[in-house]
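Hi,

Apologies if this is the wrong queue. I'm a grad student, and the batch job for C1_2 domain-containing protein/C1_3 domain-containing protein from Cephalotus follicularis produced an output file that my downstream script rejects. I'm not sure whether the problem is my script or the file. Here is the sequence I used:
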Amino acid sequence: MRIDKEIIHPIHPQHKLKLVYTETPFKCDGCKEAGIGLKYACQRCEFDLHKTCAVAPATINHPFYKGCEFEFKYKHPGREMRICDACRNDVVEFVYHCKGCGFDMHPCCANLPQALDDGERHLYLYLKLSSSCHHCGGKGPGWSYRSQCKTINLHVSCAKELLVESWQAMHLKVDRNKVREMQTRIPGLKGTSKNQHARGGKVSQIAGGAARLIVSAILGDPTAIISAVIGGFLS
Ligand SMILES: [Zn+2]
Ligand SMILES: [Zn+2]
Ligand SMILES: [Zn+2]
Ligand SMILES: [Zn+2]
Ligand SMILES: [Zn+2]
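Support response: The file is valid. Your script probably expects a header line. Output copied below for reference.
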């Protein structure tokens, strides 16, 4: 696939957006979720889009919802607040929506790889959890990644929480103000620790490499390079 180094995007038509790579988490101005890695950024304003969000095709199909056609929308056509069926986070703006059944997916969630390989094991994406999630201990709704050997079971939403916790822990040691600033900039990073009882760094021990890989996929850029970067968050 051809990747344009520069694009003009309809929601920010006044300036060109340039493809850049960043190791600092950013907030995507399209889907409003956190991102890392490749993004299209305005060099003049503080405006960023996940690469996936910036070049989202108008319609897509998804292996989990056979027979559905998902349309890309800048804003959800419904009036009530919607959540993403994959990660269970709010849908604020950019979304893939199926008119027929009402399923919604963030563009990055729609692009989550069906299989990830961390060098040691394969992780597969599932629509439902079959056994308890390593992070929240539950079997609640939302997609999950499971390893072939079944030792790793992690909600996509929990992997996001894990990233936030690790990221915050890392920065709390360094600079409290930085954490607060980041929380303001990326609303998705705020108050996500609903599962206090289930914490304790267990996941990063069991599944260090695997968790890193899942997290980088979730942040919109499933590449091995990024998993190394995020290693800092989880160790
Ligand atoms: Zn986005
Ligand atoms: Zn601009
Ligand atoms: Zn449908
Ligand atoms: Zn999502
Ligand atoms: Zn979970």
